[in-house]
Amino acid sequence: MITKKIPVALFVVAALIAGSALLRKDPIPDAAAVPLPDPQVMLANGHGYRSLEEVAATWRARVRQNPDDYLSRTRLGRTLLALARETGDLSLYGRAEAHLRTASAAAANDVSAATGLAASLSAQHEFTDALDRLREIRAEWPDDPSIQAAIADAHIDLGQYQTAFAAIDDLARAFPGTAATLSRQARVAALTGHDDQAVELSAQALVVTANIGVRPSDAASSWFQMAFFQHQAGSVDLAEQSLRSGLSIDPRHLPSRELLGKVLVAQGRLDRAADLYEDILEVTPAADLHGLLAEVYEAQGRDEDATEQNRLGTQVADQQVGRFPAERRHLASFFADTDPERFLELMEQDVATRRDVYGLDLLAWAQFLNGDEDAALETSRDAMRLGTEDASMLFHAGMIELAAGDESTGRGLLERALAVNPGFDLRDVAAAEDALAV
Predict the structure, then answer these.
(1) In CATH, which of 3.60.10.10, 3.30.70.60, 1.50.10.20, 1.25.40.10 is domain 339-437?
(2) What is the 3-state secondary structure (H, E, C) of the chain?
(3) In this predicted structure, what is the pLDDT of residue 327?
(4) Over the chain, what is the mean pLDDT?
(5) Where are the chain's structural domains?
(6) Tens of pLDDT, residues 233-277
(7) Under CATH, which architecture does the 9-194 domain have?
């Protein structure tokens, strides 16, 4: 019974990096009146962007010619951040940080270098350091909306929700109807259990983004955000449509491909899901994806293939666990089935750096799997304090409440999990149904 998540932060970082473009004031679209944009029109609007590899090569050459050129070094660092998101190459985050540190030290008053460095820290889940730096930057540029938005993001990632929500309210008053504001409002809606509102707000953000003319990967990210919330709300068919729209713009968009695999599983299309996961893993080895593919193989009766995927996933996890702290949560989830003690160890480390509700949920599950039911109950109730309507979180909370002896609450949570998204996870759905059948 293991839950793997695509972190919400994946689609927030794009807005943080894009900054002023997505904070441009445009009329607020009425989601009911304005149709969703044509993906091919979005692709055409973004025509002319060079590949990020080419852009990085250009700035890298300029930095080599003049190492003191902080402007080129800033552009290189920010491009590497975008390339890391686009390709899933985690090593690029550290390289981006190094360039942005050098640029920021050389030009302390350059807002692009400073915010880029904060973004690189956030991407590596060094949220406290990122927030400290952002506060320093805000003292110099108190009216810069991109800095305000990035500070709100850091507070959300740290689980400091009251402060974060107030900051997003301020942003919405100052910059209503921008893609960056709407995306953050959607995130708040989802965290507080308003999944339908999250879908509506992300649809509005998508419509605004379509009129800007962004890079294909950023256009795909806007479709991904809406699909993420549609999937969380249990609208898996709509999520598939949204993901395929985004992938028609950027066929390589990694978050969309990963989420599409989960959607296919929820739809019962296991053969297609297996093909997709196999295809992704040929390019991007990831422990959690090996684990997801293993689950699909098990459901297909391919036990030997499932065992091999778990072996490969363990191998990848062992290689990455100390090298990439930003992957700690994914790696921790992978170990839930095979090594609960390691699952707990990693989640304790993760929550020590940020106490967001998704991390607390997984920590509670790790405590439960290790037999510490009292701690699991306390942590789980903390994780559920915002009322988040996420099927996996509801499942974990339900199982923990049942173990604590509260049958009514536990059964209610399990029933809600299945109502929200009946196909949220192969193993967990079966476990929920078994528990309810008793």
Answers:
(1) 1.25.40.10
(2) CCCCCCCCHHHHHHHHHHHHHCCCCCCCCCCCCCCCCCHHHHHHHCCCCCCHHHHHHHHHHHHHHCCCCHHHHHHHHHHHHHHHHHHCCCHHHHHHHHHHHHHHHHCCCCHHHHHHHHHHHHHCCCHHHHHHHHHHHHHHCCCCHHHHHHHHHHHHHCCCHHHHHHHHHHHHHHCCCCHHHHHHHHHHHHHCCCHHHHHHHHHHHHHHHHCCCCCHHHHHHHHHHHHHHHHHCCCHHHHHHHHHHHHHHCCCCHHHHHHHHHHHHHCCCHHHHHHHHHHHHHHCCCHHHHHHHHHHHHHCCCHHHHHHHHHHHHHHHHHHCCCCHHHHHHHHHHHHHHCHHHHHHHHHHHHHHCCCHHHHHHHHHHHHHCCCHHHHHHHHHHHCCCCCCCHHHHHHHHHHHHHCCCHHHHHHHHHHHHHHCCCCCHHHHHHHHHHHHC
(3) 78
(4) 90
(5) 9-194, 269-323, 339-437
(6) 999 999 999 999 999 999 999 999 999 999 999 999 999 999 999
(7) Alpha Horseshoe (1.25)
Q: Which CATH number fits domain 269-323: 1.10.3430, 1.25.40, 3.40.1350, 3.40.190?
A: 1.25.40
